[in-house]
Amino acid sequence: MSVLTDSVLLPDDLAQVATVTVVRPGPLSTIQDWPGRTGYWHVGVPPSGPMDDLSFRLGNRAVGNPEGAPGLECTLAGPTLRFERATAICVTGAPAPVTVNGEPVPQWRAVTVPAGGTLEVGAVTGPGLRVYVLLAGGLDLPEYLGSTATFTLGKFGGSTGGILRAGETLPLGEPENTPTGAVPMEHQPALTRHWQLAVTEGPHGAPEFFTRADIDTLYATPYEVHFNSDRTGVRLIGPKPAWARPDGGEAGLHPSNIHDTPYSVGALDFTGDTPILLGPDGPSLGGFVCPVTVTAADRWKLGQLAPGDTVRFVPVRSAATAPLRELGRERRAGFPIVLSAGGDGDNGVLRRGHVDDETSVTYRRAGDDGVLVEYGEMTLDLALRARVHALHQHLLADRLRGITELTPGIRSLQIRVDPALLPVPRLLDLLAEAETAIPAAGDLVVPSRTVHLPLSWDDPATREAITRYMHGVRADAPWCPWNIEFIRRVNGLDTVQEVYDTVFDAEYLVLGLGDVYLGAPVATPTDPRHRLVTTKYNPARTWTPENAVGIGGAYMCIYGMEGPGGYQFVGRTTQVWNHRATGSDDPWMLRFFDRIRWYPVEADELLDLRADFTGDVRTEDGSFSLAEYRGFLDAEADSIAEFRGRQAEAFGAERESWRRAGEL
User: Fold this and answer.
1) Is the pTM of this model over 0.85?
2) Which InterPro entries does the entry mention (predicted)?
């Protein structure tokens, strides 16, 4: 698939097409299409697209477009646009004043802006937060990874990879059909200040991760929308869970921590004690539990949640959810409440079983359109990742109709489906059949390159991120003011130099991509004696520098771009996503089962390497054999056990100090 790195049309190109000029862009206006950028969840590329897909799709229908044609999503206020040719438009979503050449016009109705005319959309008056501007013919822009949807954090899509800018000129497509007129009142979504969200149970609920009382509280409590919310996720203010376990074990000190697992858009992600509803620009992989997931048909509401609004979660049966494809009465969007007779009552667990005498398998609900397959116990075991790989490859080869995404985690594989084509019960039967066909994990031999990357130890950018966290989130966290000292303490090492030596001696095996967006690896040392174990920030950071390197649980990650985060910093490296990739070249640099080796550079040298980055790094071909790896573990068993014993003692002491301080 072609990867376009520059979607701005040249002046000669614009002379051949009708255009619309952005006179005033509004504060946060972006170009989106629906369903967005699908098929790249496994490498950390979110779908993007409109947060309120319903308002967007209905508006496109009104002007005679296909439902997914590119249009504008505007947050807080809309734009002022000047049209070169007469164009039918429809403004939907949250209420806002709309004028054409200064004359008021209604929302939810196709109206014509005359040639040379101006459309002005003012500030949202509420309820709701986002307004949509759909134009007959859509916007005729090049695609990046199959979509024109803008992902501002990744700096791609749309016209420039970012929000609209004053003075830019956008090309209009040719209208395909006659506008249909107004969106019927009964099809328009009901906006409110007090929301109810239909949710399905799972993937990680009670009694394994949350107490039953936690889940009861979750359903009974009106949560408040925090002002620090955006397209990546909607933060909520609500009660702190009691939790069903003391910590996350190898995954981290906090009970919310798990081995990195694929996420669903609409999942309620507990990053520590903070609940966040993951949005269409959210991460594809992470190490936190999600007790419930908003149904696909109700996810439009995430786009209209405004700071100060309240949210109630209403459990529904997954088989009774409204169809996403439906835009009329069956979508039930016109009801301000969720009609429900209760949830599935299965704690999000669809099936359990065994694939062999040693390995269990659990099939968890990941929304009404997904299944999370988990192997084995909650522990770091490369044999489990091998099993995930075998299932992943089997499903890729089978090319089952109805599967839309396959995303591997550490010991899990998320399978997203179109339920209209592949119902979840049928998928479960097919997965059971697959277990009899895939090879034993012990037979795994895969290509495994050694990739050499520079690391600026304790980089100034990561120090700045810690300082921002202390000033803006909390200054009394156990890992502040220096993450590396915290890593030393929690692992029972005598000096910070030992942390340095361990990181640079380690060989990190890439188990997942997209842990924090854009091909960012989640990796673990092949030698257990190099596995420094930490916990994640609680609450998470609101800002992390691009390509910061951190450790969370027993894993290392490289942050693919700026954004939130929770891993403990050790330094910073070069880019892992090549924005300059063209043609058939993949922009993601790393592959599953690559081995990363660090070499030290000074901070100034890293800045030069980043400025001159072309995507070329030193690599050496090789392979990874699980059988050979098991032989290594057997040969070094005594030394590994001694290291783990010291580490567990220090980890336990840190946990006890947290308990006394009220952190747990």
Assistant:
1) yes
2) CT_A_B, CT_C_D, Cyclophilin-like_dom_sf, PxpC
